[in-house]
Specification:
Elements lengths: L2 H26 L17 H13 L14 H15 L14 H14 L4 E6 L5 H7 L3 E6 L9 H9 L10
Parallel strand pairs: 1-2
């Protein structure tokens, strides 16, 4: 398979989602609140803007840069000390990995799972639309499990069913 065909195959689920989104927008108009990527409507809250202003005012020249991959040693040591105190277990700086964002952290988790060999991963839905794509790219099988619609918590019975009687989904369900 050529690189172009492989990319087309990987982008097909996003194109399907975009087409569903377009049709929904046409049908719903201004009543639609698109939360597909968690973009806030109406802008950030006043408290958030105030916190950003304080951070900017107090930031030195390098104060707002991304952390080095894995995290700064001092920060990792402080997190390890806190974890040790709060859990009663021994943690050192080498036991802690800090990332510049959630996707970098999930990328590490997904790769660690893949290092164990081919396997399956429970994906709570709704989820960020790219998670299944990342899993598929690592040849991991996504098992989609809806969260409890009332509590919005993981549904343990649904997770068990996904492993024992669930259908393997190799591609996005939408």
């Amino acid at each position: 398979m050529t690189l172009a065909l492989a990319l087309e195959d990987l982008l097909a689920p996003q194109r399907r989602f975009d087409e569903l989104r377009r049709k929904t927008m046409l049908r719903s108009g201004v009543r639609l609140a698109d939360l597909g990527y968690g973009n806030a409507y109406g802008g950030p809250a006043a408290e958030v803007l105030a916190a950003i202003r304080r951070a900017l005012e107090n930031a030195g020249e390098l104060g707002l840069q991304y952390t080095p991959y894995g995290g700064a040693t001092v920060a990792r040591r402080l997190v390890a000390e806190h974890l040790s105190r709060s859990s009663g277990l021994a943690f050192g700086a080498r036991d802690v990995v800090l990332t510049p964002g959630a996707m970098a952290a999930l990328n590490l988790v997904f790769r660690a799972l893949r290092a164990q060999g081919p396997g399956e991963v429970i994906v709570p839905v709704p989820c960020w639309l790219d998670y299944p794509l990342y899993l598929e790219n690592l040849d991991l099988v996504a098992r989609f499990v809806a969260v409890d619609p009332v509590t919005l918590r993981l549904d343990l019975a649904a997770i068990a069913a996904a492993f024992f009687i669930g259908v393997v989904v190799r591609h996005w369900p939408w």
